Amino acid sequence: MPSTTRNDSEPSLALVHEGWNHLMSQRPLAAWGAWQRALRHEAGSEAARKALTTLECAQELPLAARRTYRFRQPRTPEQRARWDRRMRDGRGDELDAAAAIFDLLTQDAPDDVEAWFNRALCLAWRGRDVEAVECLDRVVALEAAHAPEGAVEAWTLAEVLRQGGGAEVLADDLRYACSFPRDGAEVDDLLALFPEIRRIPTPRDPSRPDHAATDVEVLEWLDRPFPDQAEGAPAADLPHVLATIYVSPETLRLSSPRVDGLERAEERLRLVIGDPGEAAERAAAPLPLPFLDAALWTVRLPEGRDRADADRWTREVVENYYEDRWLHRPRQGLDGLSPLAAALDAHAGDDQARAKLAAVVRLREQLGARPGSAALYQGYPFDRLRRRLGLDPDDPASIEPDDLSCAGPWELKALVPGDLNDQQLIDAFLSAKGLRDDALTAPLAEELLRRRPDGLARVDAEDLAASLVRREMQRGRPDAALDRIEQVRPLASDAARRALDVWRAEVFARSGRPDEAANAYRLLLDDSFEGARLALDAGEALLDAGSAPQARAFLTEAARLAPAFGLRGVARRAAQLLESMGRD
């Protein structure tokens, strides 16, 4: 019996190590390819077999990242003959050679979709993910109209490849970070100024359990404080993490998987430290494949709640995230469009947009189906999201046709608000609000204000007014916009009333009534932290409206109030604007 020699095992072990390096770099197909090549060098390689089993059983990965892919076969005798000729001319047993053969086949017949797909697999197995995605894009173009399932399968694979090392420029799911010079900012001052910031334990190095990092403090910047009465509160009232803040002696580093959250935290931080200009450092890196849905889990639940509350909240969080927020974020996997914009193109007859959108949703569904995630997703049926985006459901029985809470824009546009019962009306309004389309939302808001149903408490007063105020301003009817604000005011909480009063002042400013705007702003000012911020906002709004005299008074007030509250950014901005007005 021949035995495995050292010369056989050395290249096999090298390929096993290469595969692990691929996996660490988020290239699971390249890892699979390296381990298969190791087995060809050494058929009995235990290390390669264990590695393949580890990948197959890595249930923290979406299915598309760990399934076994196979070459597609030619469909017609003519295609088979062409393939046979090319296979005889060159060696197809090595990946690079096979990729070259399939490349020649696509040159021979640019519509040979099987050759395009197989070349993509060869490239992916070698870790050449960018080129593989380009081939899969061609597969979608060729198959979307007549073989949509093949196109969806191909683009689901592309969604995995775009997160791999070397394909960072294609990645869609990222962790964002920015760093600023600390500029004397103190943690205690941040905590005092922003009650929504809280300390969290500083991460420790697991390899040095006795080592405490004393030079870094870690904070979470929430988008709001926890509700006073959490029981019965909707998930929309729970705080989300805008950013995690790492405070070192020299810098403040903000990090988040949500770019919108990071931008909001940065905007607030500038109130304290001012504009760092070129001193700010920004970075973005692909999220690890097991954490592609990290942006979903930025919500924070109140401590000590029972399991039923937590389950209800997490299910609401999933619905709100995918159906109202995620669908607005542009994705390179959708040719730079948001899922909602791609859905509109698909509805207009774009088969490629439909196939790519279906693939993007399929990968999100696979993330939710992982054993470690199933409890968090609380059985969320992704057919709700498919309905929202106008895609065919996989299981029509998983959603209720009369449930308007996940209705798409076409369904909402066809509704007659007066024909809906109270619950349907509220669900339709909340659904339209999540789509951010005033043309859909405003008629429903009008009917809610006319009818005032018992369930209106589910609707935030600011949301109720927003589409109506914007619509009236776009029509050049500022007095009608002011009337809408007054209509909503009795339904608003104290905090919402203050926001509505700010809107009222802005309407005056934008409609060429600077004296009334100044009076409205002045009624809201006080010697407080919020007063300093509002004085700056008022000055900028009046300045934008061309009302320099009134703007000067508010900017002067902002410059006076800000230092007492540590708002150096506010003071600097006010001083800069005043100086520029002096030069003018």
For the record, what CATH class of the largest domain applies?
Mainly Alpha
Biggest β-sheet description: 6 strands, antiparallel
Uncertain regions: pLDDT < 50 for 5+ in a row?
none
**Strand arrangement, largest sheet?**
2-3-4-5-1-6
Please, what is the average pLDDT? 91
The amount of helix comes to 55-70%
**Any guess at the CATH architecture of the largest domain?**
Alpha Horseshoe
Q: How many angstroms does the end-to-end distance come to?
A: 94 Å
Task: Count up the helices.
Answer: 26
**CATH topology term of the largest domain:** Serine Threonine Protein Phosphatase 5, Tetratricopeptide repeat
Total separate domains: 3
Percent in strands = 5-15%
Instruction: Output the radius of gyration.
Output: 29 Å
Characterization of this structure:
With 584 residues, this protein is of the alpha+beta class. The chain has three domains: 6-57; 174-286; 307-583, Serine Threonine Protein Phosphatase 5, Tetratricopeptide repeat. The protein is 56% helix and 6% strand. The protein has 26 helices and six strands. A six-stranded antiparallel β-sheet has the order 2-3-4-5-1-6. It is globular, with a radius of gyration of 29 Å. The N and C termini lie far apart (94 Å). The model has no long low-confidence stretch (mean pLDDT 91).
